[in-house]
């Protein structure tokens, strides 16, 4: 069997598919990309065992199948100069007079499973979802917690989709609208691995809509255009995050320019001998003060007069670890304005549809 494909289009699709391949995996199937072709249609599939990526056209069960080694075939695509690539089931590759020989196993020895029995599907605005995930990922626990549930991003479906993440020190929530269709209950609470979400946000940029569906037997599948990314969910209890927002409501409020606050905190952090030293944040009626007492020169205060419309008698106080604050400030800084509440135990930022709470330190 010979398959003739446009090299430019094949290179684009192969680059996407091999994001899920692992060229050094001890599992042989994970080192290959499956090519299925039927007439002029073809699709590529790859997996690393945790995530599966499918890109291309719909093909039937009778499609021809062959396995392409991820690293070697990528190198061929980069070095070939022809407009078309001819691939044979015996492993030979031709392009504009150049020839290569690949050692490929039989595709019958491998199976690629994806999310089956898709239930209700949900449609989201790509930009809103990608922004919500971008805000959540820095706040995810990086594996040091015994609670596996907080090592991913929580997607809670109700009247809106709440994208929530926490590492036990901070928590962030962004609400976005969605539409749904299909059978089943519209409400769901799931924990999604960050690896899966990073992949779909990087691949979905430029598309208008993103669709995801939950499998009846577990798992989640995201689709945008001709790309589908699917994988399993994280088992484990996620904290009752709603209680955190009830415990630290929006009370005494200061309106802030986040970019100025980030500059003040960053400058105070630089003066500290230890980059994890607590930064004192003080917001009064006319200014924001961020200071560190850990530097060799003693206390160094960086002041910014950026508050506007602060209620009479408003005082926000809190000592925070800048390592947990700055990434979030920078991520949502494009929105410019936010409100801040501080009671000494926690600082709360409300910015549009996003709420961020960071526990204070002594």
Percent range for β-strand residues? 35-45%
Helix share bin:
10-25%
Low-confidence stretches: 295-312
Report the average pLDDT across residues: 80
Rg from alpha-carbon coordinates: 25 Å
Largest sheet: 9 strands, antiparallel
- Count all strands and give the number: 25
Overall shape: elongated
Per DSSP, the total helix count is 7
Separation of the first and last Cα atoms: 70 Å
Strand order of the largest sheet: 5-2-3-4-17-16-15-9-13
Give the helix/strand layout:
Layout: E1 2-6, H1 7-17, E2 32-38, E3 41-47, E4 51-56, E5 64-69, H2 70-79, E6 84-88, E7 92-95, E8 98-101, E9 118-125, H3 126-136, E10 152-157, E11 161-166, E12 170-176, E13 179-181, E14 188-193, H4 194-204, E15 209-215, E16 220-224, E17 227-231, H5 241-247, E18 254-257, H6 258-270, E19 279-283, E20 288-292, E21 300-304, E22 316-320, H7 322-332, E23 337-342, E24 346-351, E25 354-359
Antiparallel strand pairs: 1-6, 2-3, 2-5, 3-4, 4-17, 6-7, 7-8, 9-13, 9-15, 10-11, 10-14, 11-12, 12-25, 15-16, 16-17, 18-23, 19-20, 19-22, 20-21, 23-24, 24-25
């Amino acid at each position: 069997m010979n398959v003739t494909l446009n090299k430019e289009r094949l290179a684009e699709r192969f680059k996407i598919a091999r994001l899920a391949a692992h060229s050094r995996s001890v599992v042989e199937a994970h080192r290959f990309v499956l090519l299925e072709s039927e007439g002029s249609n073809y699709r590529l599939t790859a997996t690393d065992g945790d995530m599966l990526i499918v890109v291309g056209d719909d093909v039937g069960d009778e499609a021809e199948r062959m396995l392409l080694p991820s690293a070697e075939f990528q190198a061929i695509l980069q070095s070939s100069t022809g407009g078309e690539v001819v691939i044979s089931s015996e492993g030979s590759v031709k392009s504009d007079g150049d020839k290569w020989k690949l050692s490929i196993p039989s595709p019958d020895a491998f199976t690629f499973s994806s999310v089956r029995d898709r239930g209700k599907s949900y449609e989201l605005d790509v930009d809103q979802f990608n922004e919500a995930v971008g805000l959540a990922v820095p706040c995810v626990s990086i594996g040091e917690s015994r609670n596996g549930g907080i090592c991913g991003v929580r997607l809670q479906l109700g009247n809106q989709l709440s994208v929530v993440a926490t590492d036990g020190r901070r928590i962030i929530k962004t609400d976005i609208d969605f539409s749904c269709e299909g059978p089943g209950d519209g409400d769901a609470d799931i924990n999604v691995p960050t690896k899966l979400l990073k992949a779909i946000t990087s691949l979905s940029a430029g598309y208008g809509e993103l669709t995801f569906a939950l499998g009846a037997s577990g798992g989640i599948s995201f689709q945008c255009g001709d790309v589908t990314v699917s994988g399993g969910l994280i088992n484990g209890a996620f904290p009752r995050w709603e209680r955190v927002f009830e415990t630290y409501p929006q009370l005494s409020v200061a309106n802030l320019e986040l970019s100025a606050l980030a500059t003040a905190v960053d400058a105070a952090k630089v003066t500290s001998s230890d980059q994890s030293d607590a930064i004192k944040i003080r917001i009064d009626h006319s200014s924001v003060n961020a200071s560190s007492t850990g530097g060799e020169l003693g206390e160094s205060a960086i002041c910014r007069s950026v508050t506007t419309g602060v209620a009479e008698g408003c005082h926000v106080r809190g000592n925070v670890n800048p390592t947990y604050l700055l990434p979030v400030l920078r991520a949502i800084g494009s929105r410019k304005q936010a409100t801040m509440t501080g009671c000494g135990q926690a600082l709360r930022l409300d910015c549009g549809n996003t709420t961020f709470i960071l526990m204070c330190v002594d």
